[in-house]
Protein 1
Amino acid sequence: MQTTHEPSGENLPTLPDRGGIGDEERRLGEAFRTRYASEFRELVVRREVKNPAVTLVVVSYRAGDYLLDCLRHLRGQTVALDLPYEILVADSGGLEPLRSRYGNLVDVELRLRDGLPLNVARNAAMGWARGELVAYIDDDGLVVPDWLEYGVNLFRDETIGAARGRIVPHKHPWYNVWAGHYDRGDELWDEDNVSTEGNMLIRRAVYLAIDGFRDDLYGGEGLYLAYRMKRAFPALRSVYAPGMIMRHDYCRSAREFVWKSRRYKDVRKNITGIEPEFDAYMAVFDARKKPVKKRTPTEEVVLAGMRAAQSVIARMPIFDRVKRR
């Protein structure tokens, strides 16, 4: 039975913590909820999962039917009958037309202030997530059936603090040629980065302890998160996990490519100078040799054309008029 909880005075509604949670994680979770209380609107519990091992968070804003496809893939995991996990939609607005169609695809709706910046919504969601492990999944990403099984088994290695998955094309393969970091091949790799923030899994206690994503970043936040983790927990690793596969397109149209070219053109400039130690971390990361998937001759031609187009787009402010969709 669905229940809706709204704030009462200074008290924010929550679900019971999972069994065995540590005192520090509990304290930090409460602190996150307090920090983002002004962004909270209501908590809708469609199904309460007892002691979830994992929380799968989908942050969404004004989504279409692709959100339902995303949720179906999360619900249909190979471990669905063996592992208690909850699906939490962090609703940043515009999802009203879809809510009546969720059915059993959503366990918890965290309804937030309309139009929140992505990392603010992610951090708020972590406050209400309850799993020992928490995933962030793009609302238009389709994970493979054994995504969660692979991820949970990977985290049996206690040296792994965070993992990001592999992204393969869905409907528009040429745009993913531009995003060479999406697919680093078939081998587990210590990346020291969380470069696909919408296809990742992290220990909740670690995320809370390092203060999560920076609210003000849009691009580069995964690298900064990995830096924070390495600084606070030097023994923990941030890895590329090739078995956490998601079908997802870097762009779904030429319009979106133009928008992203403008949106991300200053990412490195924006994250440089945050902290001298982070600048040094970036320099070491940039200098490292990285696994590169071999491209076909056609892909090389496509990439050259996209580089030329991006160079023009990045220099011409008139393209700021282009909307994402």
Protein 2
Amino acid sequence: MIANPLLQAPQVTNTQDLFPLNLLALSAADNLLENILRPTLTYLGVTCVAMEQLLLGTLLTTARLSALQRNEQAIGPYAITPEQHTEIWDKHLALQPELASKIRGLASQHCFLHNPHAELGYNLGYATAIAWLIYERQQLSIGSHSDLPSLARIWERSYPHRGGRAQDFLRAWRSACKAASPVSA
């Protein structure tokens, strides 16, 4: 049987055509916070509302960045590159075996061994932990910067992207959190 070309799905020739990702089509911001970000941070021993908000804003913002603003080899909604992922493991987690064990516990049992970078795309808990480590290894003082504009500036200066601005963070946050929710700031 010959397939009807009019019924075939269009081929995506470039992964950049897939971005920006509408993450909120999958889950509301408060649901992401309550069911993924907060449990992941709690598992890691982090209890900081400002860090939860920074990671939620990071997730919302990087998922909305255009392909030109995302790092070229970026994987998943946090847009983490394989190089950044490897650097986290080699230069940060290698020095903290207990934390490394916890982070590894978030990864899938077999797939991580074959393609650890793929976890950044399909395991949001694991990707959240790696995104947290991108901030944590910089030893930022997040607790004292809990208002939304300050978190946006931290994202702009401290999280890897190409030309993203604090305004992108604020726009993504306001778009996602316009309804009253526990994440409103």
